[in-house]
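To whoever is on call:

I kicked off a structure prediction for a single chain this morning and the downstream step that reads the tokens threw a length-mismatch warning. I double-checked the sequence; it's 120 residues and nothing unusual in it as far as I can see. Pasting both halves so you can look.
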Amino acid sequence: MITTLKKLRAGEREDVRGARSIVDARFNTNIYPHIGPLDEMNWGYHGQGPHNLALNILYTFTKDESFAWDYRTEFVEEFLEKAPKNGDLFIPEQKISAWIQKKRPVLRLIKSNQGGELEL
């Protein structure tokens, strides 16, 4: 039974884990609540808890608050709402990093078309 999880700092990339054996939703993942309206994070459905977890996973991996807000719903739909509601959560770092890399070119193109600077 898992009783604690080491929290990742912004910019750190490791597998994302969540443990249902930790009842308090403020501490049941290895993601720190850097941004967003809640410190509770959850998975297994499409709601505010998973959106807050997605927001903070994306911020932790990218340190880009705008990207995190823009792509949190897509991340929930692809990873978090499909996770077992009553089971533990595990998302490999490689899957998250690859997903972010696929989304970043879209973000760059949108910024470029709006007259902003093109990020490389």
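Update from on-call: the warning came from a stale cache, not from the record. Cleared it. Sanity check on the structure: The longest strand covers residues 16-18.
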